[in-house]
Amino acid sequence: MLSTITEISFALLLGVGVPVLAYITAWRPEIHQIPRRALYLSAVISQWILGLVGALVVLATGRGFAGAGFRGLPFAEFLRWTAFLVIVALAALAIWLLLEHLGWWPEESDLVRLLMPETATEKVWAVLLVAPTAAVCEEFLYRGFLLAQLSEWLDSGWWALIVSSVIFALAHVYQGPSGMVRVALLGALLAYPVLRLESLYPSMAAHFVIDVVALVWLGPRFLERKAP
To answer: How much is the pTM?
Structure first.
């Protein structure tokens, strides 16, 4: 009983608490005055704290990390799935950003533009801190813990994929409606091999590569900062 309450409480934290906090934080006017590296550090610390809480929940409930997607798989299969996810996601993202750049799709939010690294140092931070943190923590939380829990509660992997992807998008409310749709689709793509393989590793690796390319090259290439 206690383990069930713990799992439900943490799922509610991910599904309600994190989106509400993200919404409140995103629309604070002073956030635009905070240095970019401080924003990166704040996001990294917050995600690792949430990931640590998630790990404690997994241990306390006896589910085990294998049940949250930490399962090995053949290296060739890992490479195939990682390459598939990266190619599909980056192709879709490039088309999406090109449409925005041409004015054929709603623009990104100001906060997304604010978070794009501009200097070499900021790009190093993005590669060494932001991208690996998102890859490990977000995949564990949303495609590991939450996807497994929802699959049990809903008795359907596909419904769990949909609901977890929507929750993942809500956690990125700062990206605006257009960005949230993109995040939901990316979440669904990354969840698919987890359902098939019961392993997070291809999704983690792909998430890292996608974020690095998006932050260091694609984003800065297509999104010009608006003048204040």
So the answer is: 0.94
